[in-house]
Amino acid sequence: MASHRKPRTRILESPAGRRTAVGVGSAALASATLLSQEAGATPAERSIEDVQKEVDHLYHEAERATERYNGAKERTSQQRGRVEQQLDEVAEETARLNESRRELGRLAAAQYRTGGITPTATFMLAPDPQTYFDQAHLMERLTNREQAAVDQFQVRQAKANTKRAEAQESLRNLTESQEQLRDSKKEVQTKLSDARKVLDRLTEEEKQRLAELERKREEEARRKAEEAARQAELERQRQAEQERREQEQREQEQQEEEQQEEPPPADTGASKSEKVLAFAEAQLGKPYVWGATGPDSFDCSGLTQAAWREAGISLPRTTYDQVNAGTQVAKADLQPGDLVFFYDDISHVGIYVGNGQMIHASKPGDDVKYESIDYMPFHSGVRPA
Q: Residues 57, 60, 360, 379: which is the catalytic one?
């Protein structure tokens, strides 16, 4: 395929682009404020709790930027394929247009040899063919064959122009998505670099205190999850006992049917969740890498997308879209396999495994692991199947 000129890059003007730009600017300002405060504080003025909050904030900002990166990457991939297809169509229409032009040339040459300049020859030599078409009295002098050739040329010329305009618009959209991709990637790298700088400035003693603080935080989240799971189990037992009593009479009536050979079980939601959990458990210990979708590393939404793909369910790429890809579930009604989302901006997601625990691709520098769903601010639960 012939090469195509790349359109000039212009500033993103869509509402979504403006929101992204505002989000990036706000995040950068917040990060700069935190770092400037840290740089001006003395060890006596700054507690290890403050350090933990700052690092958590930077990791959270990096994960938000990662989800924006994932969305821009997906759009770029889709638009690139669309542009390639449209450019192929432009090339095909241009070839057809050139064939029509050659046909008109052959007609003009033949008429010139037999009788001088004819309407067709005049058309081919005119600097502006439309000026020629506007002269109705000349059009009337064309033969049927010439008229058909001119009509075909006009149709193909209009179609080629339309295809070319569509391709140019798609190229502009692709350029905008590529700019968003670069901006999001740069923001992720900046946030992770800022977090590393904060941690690198700690003394060994401070690093140990930070690790102990993290351990206590995880223990507290685990304790809350265990208590919530205990209460949920008591409620389930109560409901199960009630259902057992109600079912005793029905089971008596269905006894004969149960003794007959049963058909193979259908691929139910339960079997799907088992496949999801089996896949998620197999990824335990693999590193978190932003933008990764496996098989050797994952980010949070990359892991959930890959796990549910194993169950035959196609999830969108980002947390912002995955939260709408199923039935909303209350925290008290979560079942294994459900997606659990965190933070007000829905920037993190995990896979619920029961007893208040989830499997998730945690954060930069960490692995795919079990974690309490109370470790982060809970947003919502979603059941894809």
A: 360
